Amino acid sequence: MMHFDAIAESLKQDKPGFTLPQKLYVSEEAYKFDTEVMLKSVWLYACTIAHVKNPGDRFLFELGDTSVIVTRTKDGEIKAFHNSCTHRGAKLCDGAGKSARLVCPYHQWTFSLDGKLLAARNMPEEFDKAEFGLRPVALENIGGLIFLCLADNPPPIDRVKADIEEQIAIYDMTKLKVAVQDDLIEPANWKLVMENNRECYHCDASHPELLKSLSTYGFGKGLPEDGEGDVVDDAAFDAMLEAQRQRWEDLGFYHDIVEFPDNWWHRVARLPLANGAVSQTLDGKPASQKPIWPHGLNETTSLSVWTQPNSWHHFCCDHVVTFSLTPLGPEKTLLRTTWLVHEDAVEGVDYDPANLAAVWRATNAQDSHLSAVNHAGIKGDGYRPGMYSVEEKLVDAFKAFYVERSRAALGV
Ligand code: 3BY
Ligand code: FES
Ligand code: FE
Questions:
Q1: Rounded to two decimals, what is the model's pTM?
Q2: Per the database entry, which stretches of residues form a coiled coil (predicted)?
Q3: Ligand 2 near 87 CB (within 6 A)
């Protein structure tokens, strides 16, 4: 392993409450460190069970030079394998797809979807196929969200699993299908794309479409009626939650907000939508006419899940929108956004894909611009770490997670 001395030095310089030292955002070495060490030491969100809905389906998740195939086996199980043939190492698949077996394009070694080597021509007598199955990758299915870990000894995920699973179970993800998927390449470091997601300090000035339904409650901001003051009013937010509590309890889905407990990496929160909206759409109306939970299409709240270090998810009464992020270069990030609807919803009848995707497609483009502007300003000589506002406490939580896990991975 490379030594990453400059990274270790920058990590030591980091100050709580402040943005990272420059090198960690912009250098080639930080990109190498992130993709080869830091991001391999944690669980990463890859996709949903709907991305591999039927036996034979496969999906690729790629981090740096490592490619992972997520498959649905003929028994309906979900598995993950390194996308590298056990013969001479060729990349087995170059994209998502569907097939009964995985056949290597080089010499046609053939694998089952649960990773067993089924056929290999002209191998010596002593060759034992059982020893040449695909190399598995650790996988957790958390209520339909698939997480992968590339470490030899993955860190515990039990508490993340328990908290998320319990709350999203009401939206039965086994009954959903992928309706739309956008891959957006952002010209910014992945950590800036993540930081941007963890605050709504920028929302008022940049997100007209999102703010039609997303309320800035819960992002460290008081209620709008609090007036013009700049100061956070947690009391007003708490009072709003208390007011909703009885109704949510009656419906059986009340849960206290889970917010990165003891440095775990998840936040799960049911939050009210703005302006009486029932879905994250331009007009606040459902984008799909088939509800995805048992309480119809009139619910004016949504359930959101944020995980460190690379995902966020919003569950509305009619659809789920889910985001997975991976670095492609020091200044290049893939943001994959997927919109899921009920499997019985018919395109063009129950939903219009363009309408379903409209809010977050516009929001992602705006955020991409902001992250690019952020990266551009950090690159130059004038940058010094800046202080986060009180509305950016979740940005600080992301950054603290990054620093802590990076230090642990490097042993510094
Ligand atoms: O909704 C989100 O995922 C993020 C968090 C705060 C604002 N925002 C666009
Ligand atoms: Fe895959 Fe030879 S490298 S069959
Ligand atoms: Fe934004």
A1: 0.95
A2: none
A3: yes
